[in-house]
Amino acid sequence: MKENGVLELLAAPAGIGMYALVLFLEGTGLPGIPYEAFFLAAGVLIAAGRLALVPLLALATLANTLGTLAGYAAGRFGGRPLLERYGPFLGVRPGAVARVENWYARWGGAAIIISRIIGLTRTPAILLAGIARMDLKVYLFYSVLTSLGWCTAQQLVYLYLGQTAARFLSPRVLELITLGGVLLGVFYVLFFWLTCRRRARPS
């Protein structure tokens, strides 16, 4: 299959960098990151022999883990005021915070894995790990495990979908789907940045 346009860009170093950036942002716990479009595009390119699966998974795991460390640092240095100020915007509900606190008290770092599976508790789990000053080595260990497992599972699913899509959809349609995801991601990042700036202004 011959790729062009957006798919061709994503096979280039700049596109790989975008893939890593999206997974970094997802790793911070920000909700709504449109990572699916990038996993799908990568799946199409892997199926076409343009990208190698194992190195891409290593990059995805690294980027996602670095994102979780950034989220941990935000919680550690921002504290509960950060959670209280931006929690509602991030979709963090009081019930989810209490649930994660109970998990940490009961299972420690293993709660990171649980929160990743459930999803809705992912953001409070990342921030609360920093707020509670969880041992960084413990946090990093579980973060690497969850990032590796999550990125591998997601990319394998989208590799299958990419192989299927390549059989039934034209390169132009795949390109439009990917472009839509990229534009959605850009819009989301700009919206989040502008909202944070507005909330940071003194009232």
SSE order in H/E notation?
HHHHHHHHH
Distance between the termini: 55 Å
DSSP E strands, number: 0
- Supply the number of structural domains: 1
List the helices and strands and how they pair.
Layout: H1 5-11, H2 13-27, H3 35-47, H4 53-86, H5 94-107, H6 111-118, H7 122-131, H8 136-168, H9 171-200
Helix pairs in contact: 1-2, 2-3, 2-4, 3-8, 3-9, 4-7, 4-8, 5-7, 6-7
What does this structure look like?
The chain is mostly helical and 203 residues long. The protein has one domain (5-197). Helices cover 81% and strands 0% of the residues. The chain contains nine helices and no strands. Helix 4 (53-86) crosses helix 7 (122-131).
Summed up:
The protein has one domain. The chain contains nine helices and no strands. It has helices spanning 5-11, 13-27, 35-47, 53-86, 94-107, 111-118, 122-131, 136-168, 171-200.
